[in-house]
């Protein structure tokens, strides 16, 4: 740990969730990327994380619920800084918790120069003694145990909330990459639209996400029709409270369009891999990471479509934060990633 007496801190600053990992402790916090502020004065922060998300769809007119991280980029520096600071204080159990720590925060592979500058400002203002940004795909690979230091190509697909990174890694660097501006949140939106169109019921984002988690399946199985829930919402025509029955088959049908688009993009990226790298990847297959990888049957469907073996860890949603923490805890690893251009100290 050296002069950093409190050790390394890794933060996966995602569009859907913020995940924090501490050296020698592992994952200690995962909360939604929301900030609750006054509508007329967004500097007046009322709540962050899980406390803010409880107000989703329930906010009065004078307050507004904001997600300062959109499409893997910082949309509001002040609110992103507050999100990092307050959740870090909560994770470490003290105020101004980052002052004696080395902090590594993830950034999307497709991050533009302007987006990176905004993220740098937010992380710098958070007050860590020393901080750095690392490509989220690299952090995910390290957290998942992918052998990226070897002189051969490894294919990693990291499905986040708003972005999906498809990356080939070798010798601690990125050989080729593609970022899709779509992720697991697009499945929530598809569920909301489907239920309104097919069932005549208006539901919120929280309900759609719960349906995806409880009933979502990328594969059509014989049990889909037997899994069902009773859903309450607002009738789209009359505006009155209404109740309908939703089956797992409904959710399966709802998520097919964005799921197929995502899988097709992944296949297209794979088909454009140089032959030499494809030879490296074929024997080991691809590594699947990120919270979106938790969708039931997604790994199997992707494997069938690409004709590859798909490796999925026990907790893929933790890979990025875990990798960031491992990087923050190792001077040697930080130096190697800085040399390959995957890490930027700020």
Description:
This protein is 38% helix and 27% strand. It is α+β, with helices and mostly antiparallel strands and 346 residues long. The chain has a domain at 8-140 and 319-345: Nucleotidyltransferase, domain 5. The strands form five sheets. Strands 3-2-1-9-10-19 form a six-stranded mixed beta sheet. It has a five-stranded mixed beta sheet with strand order 13-12-11-17-18, with helices on both faces. A hairpin with a 2-residue loop joins strand 7 (69-70) and strand 8 (73-74). Residues 1-5 have low confidence and may be disordered.
From the spread of the alpha carbons, the general shape counts as globular
How much is the average pLDDT? 89
Strand order of the largest sheet: 3-2-1-9-10-19
Instruction: Give a count of the beta strands, DSSP E runs of length 2 or more.
Output: 19
* Amount of helix: 25-40%
Query: What is the straight-line distance between the termini?
Result: 19 Å
CATH topology of the domain at 8-140 and 319-345: Nucleotidyltransferase, domain 5
Q: Secondary-structure blueprint of this entry?
A:
Elements: E1 8-13, E2 17-22, E3 26-32, E4 35-38, E5 45-48, H1 49-53, E6 63-66, E7 69-70, E8 73-74, H2 77-92, E9 102-107, H3 113-125, E10 130-135, H4 136-144, E11 154-159, E12 164-170, E13 173-180, H5 184-199, E14 201-202, H6 205-215, E15 228-235, E16 241-247, H7 248-271, H8 275-284, E17 286-289, H9 298-306, E18 310-312, H10 319-328, H11 331-339, E19 343-345
Parallel strand pairs: 1-9, 9-10, 11-17, 17-18
Antiparallel strand pairs: 1-2, 2-3, 4-5, 4-6, 7-8, 10-19, 11-12, 12-13, 14-15, 15-16
Helix pairs in contact: 2-3, 4-10, 5-6, 5-7
